Fold this sequence. Notes:
The chain is an alpha/beta fold. 27% of the residues lie in helices and 20% in strands.
Amino acid sequence: MTDTLKCTIDGQELEVPKGTLIIRAAEMLGITIPRFCDHPLLDPVAACRQCLVEIEGGPPKPATACSTPCGDGMVIKTHLTSEIARQGQEGQLELLLINHPLDCPQCDKGGECPLQDQALAHGPGDSRMVEKKRRYTKPLPISPQIALDRERCVLCARCTRFSSEISGDAFIELFERGALEQVSIYADEPYHSYFSGNVVQICPVGALTASSYRFRSRPFDLRSVNGVCNQCSAGCNLRVDVRRGEVQRQLARTNMAVNEMWNCDKGRFGFEFVANPDRLREPAVRADSAMRPTSWFQALSQASDRIKAALDERGSSAVGVLTGGRLTDEDHYAVARYAREVLGTDNVDFRLAPRNVEELDVFARISGTQGPTYSDVEVAPVVVIAGLDPEEEVPILHLRLRKAWRKRRQKIVVVGPALGSLAEIAWRWIQTGAGEEAEVLGGLADPVASLVREVTEALRDAGPAVVVLAGERLALSPGALPAAAGFAQALGAKFAWVPRRANARGAVDAGLVPGLLPGGRLLADPGPIAQVWSRLPAQRGLDTRQMLERAAAGELAVLHLIGVDPARDFEDPHLAREALERVDTLIVQDLLPTASILHARIVLPACAPQERVGSFTTWEGRRQPFPQAVPPQGLALQDWDILRQLARALGTDLGWETAADVRQEAAPLMEARAPGASSVQEASAHGHLDASPAAGYPFTAVVLDHLIGRGDMLRGAKELLATARPVVAQVSRDDALRLGLKGGQHVAVVGPSGRIVLPVSISSEVVDGCVVLPRNSTATTPGELGGRQVRLEPVGTLD
């Protein structure tokens, strides 16, 4: 029995797989059939009736090409060869235009509107409509970010289908019937979705528009540049639209291997920081207790003088470099070489989140490699997830998981103390205490309970098709990340470390961890790196906590921060602030003024991702280059260029003049090391916080990142920030009952050195003894509590 069939479209014969829709078969021949409701990633509904075709020998009426599969021997005529199809399309367009306003000059969709194009190509020459058109109050704000002009809607149902099929946010629906049918939202359920911008992009008319772009520009005024999102490790491909040197909007760009045709609202609307008035636009140095603008020459001279003095007086162990995830691959490599060769130190780390030396062995194994991919995750019959909340941390990965669950009922196993956004689609939840994931992951293949036995049998049946996804939070559980990698290896499964920050995986590939060099090579066994770099440190350096502890003790002379803000984002802000105050020289290289800049002696302004060329690496290990979209703000420079010039001031010429030079040098070194190289086998004295019960603090805080929080990269995006999810403290039902807490009641989360007051949310998706807190959504971060052990104190109720 063959899996293909032959059909003929407009006289051209072709062979297609069984089940191929007529509209897709026509596209294979380069024939575009007009449509509004059809979308290749949405289920067909034949709502707009615009894609009419004639089928010879078929029903005595036109058929909808978007919902009719090709049949063997079927002869199809489109509007190009069939008068019936042409008249049907023209009549349907006339019906759609009966109530559609002719306000194209004012409509945001004007100039890129399929209805405009099809009315011109396939519509009637004039209108027979003499009655008054339907009118609505406009616009209807269905969310702070999305505006709806109902009179323009052609009822294609693309928006409602996306919300129900793709994102799972069933907050937008078709109401009423007949001539009164319209898109709307429930009065008590506003349209809050992390993916709402997609409904604007796929709307074929100007019915749904983005508040942040509305009346801002015209398509013919825009210059479009390909881009890659810098907001998380998903690596969504973007189209950056620029007008007069400023970013006007960012849209999802099709890349079926990565983000398909979607992106999240943070990546779509979170670009306002690029031209924000607060941007750092010129170098500055501290003089008379105040920061004074200066030239690049003076700033780099002062920085190099202080670094030289520190190296001469106290040696390379007295300098350190901390970096973040916003940097490009080229920047990361430049940091790795600058620290090791120019400064002669291995005191370099990109991890602000809790860390441990156990991670190094896993990092060494995955560095420079690729896999599993989005496609592997989508087709896997079983996926095990630990230390990760995909929707909050890597949203496009969440869409792929939801797609696999909807299409094939993929079995998703969650290991950890909180179920999070996977509650709807998880097959099984293996509950653990905070920091106890290692015990389950290490013994998952040894069934000791009925639930674990059931999961083990499913994993065994799935065989090597299983995918294990491990998040950054596993560093809080000693042994959890190696256990997850070892479990995947024992099962023959594919393993991925899935960070939250945009290019954290690129930092791993570049070796921005003490003891690790580019491509997973070890400091003790550098291989070809020793032939490219003129020198390497003699011993392994300090991690983030160790550097901050040394600085707080007055033992670190210079600390160079590159795209990182430990004063707010480190797990112990008290230690971070003390370290930044006591270090002799603090150099801050960043885009925006951060809490850490308050302590800086020298400030070096860096370019935003949209202002540079470079590449980002996804959590899969897929490296994606992107061009410059807009010119830099003020005197800002690319991070690798700042380091190149600083190295020259220190007496070392790194040999680069362009980002392409850096990339050419970095590419072979950031590839995976040869198999069989030695691995890291050392215990860690630092990196995880004590999760054992403490007297008076019976709860353990589980800190999760919300996608939309108070991060600097969302500065200025007021409409987007207005869509942030409620900031609450989540506790289990049993704990709420035991403490007499009610939903909405305010509770103080109290730690040894601080407190946060939040409304309480009672959830069945949190284990007893844990309270789930947002990391970066409150003025006082959970790090201010002074540890993971906390207590809860009722303080009142919501008004």
